[in-house]
Fold:
Amino acid sequence: MKILVINGPNINMVGIREPALYGKQDYQAMLEFIQASAKEAGVEVECFQHNHEGAIVDRIQQAYFEKIDGIVINPAAYTHTSVAILDALKAVSIPAVEVHLTDVSQREDFRHISYAGKACFKTFKGLGFEGYRQGILAIKELLEKR
Structure:
């Protein structure tokens, strides 16, 4: 079972960007946490981060041809703006989970809208890095039921 973890813009700045909101652990620590979570769950994981919407859309489409089993996606700011990412997730029909480090429902009003989330079967928000572990486990559980 292979899961693709996609992180959107500025996630590579975790630990630097607004540490009061996002924590002080850096992006490398996040990647290590994701890899350890995947290993613990007995799944293979690939991490991808990009600041450009088109590159994220391209990676989602590529996942279809690579036979990726599931996607954990933190679209970051594109959550609230990108119909293109929503359409890509819908096009590939790969089971997807949305993750947010912070609880976006408790933040600015514009952050309450999630386009990508409309193509995801589950959302984890406000759990920090733990949201990625929960996303991986949710996909694994869904796929094992099939």
Summary: The chain has a mean pLDDT of 94. The beta strands are 2-7, 44-49, 70-74, 96-100, 122-125. The chain has five helices and five strands. Residues 72 and 143 are 13 Å apart (CA to CA).
